Amino acid sequence: MLVKTYAAAVQGVTATIITIEVSCNKGIQFFLVGLPDVAVRESHERIISALQVNDYKFPRYRIVINMAPADIRKEGSSYDLPLAVGIMAAAGQIDASRLDEFMIMGELSLDGSLLPVKGVLPIAVKAREAGFRGFILPGQNAREAAVVEGLNVYGMENIREVLEFIDGKRHKEPERIDARAEFYAHQESYACDFSDVRGQENVKRALEVAAAGSHNLLMIGPPGSGKSMLAQRLPSILPPLTLHESLETTKIHSVAGKLGKDVSLVARRPFRSPHHTISNVAMVGGGAFPQPGEISLAHNGVLFLDELPEFNRNVLEVMRQPLEDRMITVSRARSSVDYPAGFMLISSMNPCPCGYYNHPERTCVCLPGLVQKYMNRVSGPLLDRIDIQVEITPVPFDKISERTPSESSAAVRERVIKARTIQEERFKDYPGIYCNAQMTPKMLHTFVDPDKDGLSRLKTAMTRLSLSARAYDRILKVSRTIADLEGAEHIAGCHIAEAISYRNLDRESWGM
Predict the structure, then answer these.
(1) Among 30, 149, 179, 378, which residue is least crowded by beta carbons within 10 Å?
(2) Where in the chain is the domain with CATH 3.40.50.300?
(3) Tell me, what's the pLDDT at 507?
(4) In the CATH hierarchy, which fold is given to the domain comprising 2-166?
């Protein structure tokens, strides 16, 4: 008897339907074809044990299984359940008439219980697009898949439940959640708030400007000056995720297996802070079994690189292209995978190896030339891509000891949202452009027109600081954001001046 079950393979953040054809004839051999990897081939032993523990007999037939299309590599243990269901249906032990209604995914343990799998959300989206009535999967993944409307999601605990459900012997209600209600309920809960920060008004202003225009930012200052503390609070002043952004972000975290148990949608903007020992592959994605990297896990959120010069130079250089294109393409001999990478880069560093160059109270003990050598660990092209570079100094005692709380994140976020609303209206006719940081050079001539005072200040800064053409563009973008925060239609000299002040850490002007 020949039957078909349906599963899916995830490539990047999209899924491809896999048709599992199972044929049972006389004999006792077992064949599994269709480019399965080792984990898929090992499913034979897991299926035998799971069926025996649950009082089912593994068919004593010549079983041939083909996983089509055969040119796509099938990876992982998530095909255990559709293979087991196909074998039982082909052997006539369960009714096969309803198999074409369901997408089936799940890993089997030896006792027949179902273990969670990765990439459930993009698979559920594909199942709905392909017209499947339902999706059978492990119970721990049910809430994640249930956010897809128009698809009945059945979370199962073990293989017996699945076989009895398909055979019509067990009734199971589909998982129901109010994804919108849960999404909006968790949006405003942040563990960190700007009101905890004492002093550092210039840095908080720089973070506000960065959040309003989605600009990349570098903080440079001595140890203990609050760089990490400020960076951790940046997500609390960013505009809340939209449902579309949340779905994009959840897909990536689903593929990477980073969603927590019983999580349906990512409600808050991601904040990723990898250690400086991270490898190229872990940062950009890829590997033997391609997975999203840190830059993709930070999509629609913040990627924080603490102690920037300590990162491997190659790791930093591979970020240059994603910072511009907001997409990373992982190419291999047989295929290429695209991962979204639209993140805000927030980084911090000490000013020198000892950490006290330009410190108001402590003396730098670095040898001559070491400050510049330390800065040289971060390439000029990468610094050019960081719109805002701000120096941070230690907080004096009278500021630390203040009991009056600083301005809250909610108040700052309100101004940021207003500025972002202005930008969304400005770029409504430009697909894929949502904020000032994404403007192209051509768009700068349309939307950024400084007055004579601003042009004069900009010309002086370009000459004195030896800034590049890319830095020129960055200054104009940041000035446009500063004007948006004030609700100003035109770029004034004061806006240009503030934007220039955020470039005072360029290589030519630092450590001389």
Answers:
(1) 149
(2) 194-509
(3) 47
(4) Ribosomal Protein S5; domain 2 (3.30.230)
User: Per-residue pLDDT for 249 more than 50?
Assistant: yes
- Please give the pLDDT value at position 381: 83
The 30-33 sheet, strands edge to edge? 2-11, 14-25, 62-68, 30-33
CATH topology of domain 194-509: Rossmann fold (3.40.50)
Q: What is the DSSP letter of 394?
A: P
Coil, helix or strand at residue 57: coil
Mean pLDDT over residues 462-485, rounded?
Answer: 86
Q: Where in the chain is the domain with CATH 3.30.230.10?
A: 2-166
Nearest-angstrom CA–CA distance, 214 and 436 = 7
Whole-number Å distance between alpha carbons of 242 and 187: 10
Q: What is the mean pLDDT of the chain?
A: 88
Contacts with 269 (C-beta within 8 Å, 6 or more apart), sequence order:
235, 238, 240, 241, 249, 300, 301, 302
Does the CA dihedral 476-477-479-484 come out positive or negative? positive
Please state at what angle helix 452-465 crosses helix 469-486, rounded to 10 degrees: 140
* In contact, 298 and 310? CB cutoff 8 Å: no
Residue 251, token pair as written in the block = 């897909």
The answer, as to whether pTM is greater than 0.85, is yes
**CB neighbour class for 195 (10 Å; exposed up to 12, middle 13-18, buried from 19):** middle
* DSSP classification of residue 367: P
3-state secondary structure of 406: coil
DSSP category for residue 491: B
Give me the residue label for tokens 């904040």: 271
Range in 25-34, 326-335, 441-450, 492-501 with the lowest mean pLDDT: 326-335
Arithmetic mean of pLDDT, 268-284: 93
Lowest mean pLDDT among 358-362, 433-437, 439-443: 358-362
Amino acid type, 15:
A
Token pair 């709905």: residue: 128
Q: How far is Cα 7 from Cα 426, in angstroms, rounded to an integer?
A: 44
For residue 290, pLDDT beyond 70: yes
Side chain identity, residue 273: S
Of 385, 325, 343, which Cα lies nearest the Cα of 238?
343
Omega cis (within 30) before 292: no
Please provide the DSSP assignment of 65-130 as one string: EEEESTTSPB-SSTTHHHHHHHHHHHTTSS--TTGGGEEE--EEPTTSBEE--S-HHHHHHHHHHT
Confidence of residue 509 (pLDDT cuts 50, 70, 90): very low
Q: What b/e string do you get for 117-139 counting C-beta neighbours within 10 Å, with b at 16 or more?
A: bbbbbbbbbbbbeeebebbbbbb
